[in-house]
Amino acid sequence: MNDPDDLLTALRAARPEPDNPPSTASPEAVALLTRILAQPQIAERERPARPTRRLVLAGIPAVVAAAAAGGIAVATRDSGGSPGTLPKATRVRTGILDAFDQASGDILAAVRSIQVSNGPAFAEQTWSYPMFPQPGQRVRSRVTELGQARQVELDEQSVYIQPEPGSQAPLTGTVLAVDYASRTWFQGSGVNAIGTTSGPTPSEIRSSIASGTFHVVGQQEINGRPSIKLTLAADYPTLSKTLWVDAQTYIPLQLAYTVADANSPTTTSNTVEYQVLPATAANLALLVPRIPAGFTRTTTDPFGCGRR
After folding, report:
1. Are residue 232 and residue 127 in the same domain, yes or no?
2. Amino acid 32: pLDDT
């Protein structure tokens, strides 16, 4: 274990549970301490610079307002740095995994702009809490579909218990859905776990980063924020996948990916803007759809996932 980033990864993986601290005199502890002391200069030189507090991006209401006004405009600018100045992939990997670990109990908010080739453009907003749910944990998610004019068409919240890995049991939970076209709303048993995050899920992105199936390709500014640009491995029907992370906090800022239609030459281009929000009472309220005055309760879930 010569690379300090591999050492940091090992430390994270070996982090003890609060109620099960390891013995400081154990052979494993002694061996690990010996490795740390053997390369202090390297560890200090290569350690990613991180702020003392995790960055929390701007509040979601600004994103909602921008989407309603006609979509999210994303300003990007190449930094002009030479390839030799790019951060090491191992350093980026460690930084992103650590940022995901810190944000695991936060809310992930996203706005996805969708453009179908030779077709319409529309958008989708999502909120998921927690960002990385543990088995047995209560999961809350909301998906809002916006039409071509950025008007709200469908708005749904799902609440369910995160299953154990590999479980084949169907998800059970509750649904609150609002259909703006019919001016109706539904609340009952059911769950819609599909589409509760925009594009590749946080777990899929984390898996790509952890497995090292990515490349550091540049440094850019995203809406005035310095970022690191990565390409992720993409398999059909996903034709390309590019991720931008904050250059200081390593929190994802933007994802762009293209998907092909297996039955036609149609492709769909997606741009996802991410925000990580602390789980405050005000931010958790964003996970609950608003039922407009005059809407009628119905026994039919417009998403087709629930029953009264």
Report:
1. yes
2. 46
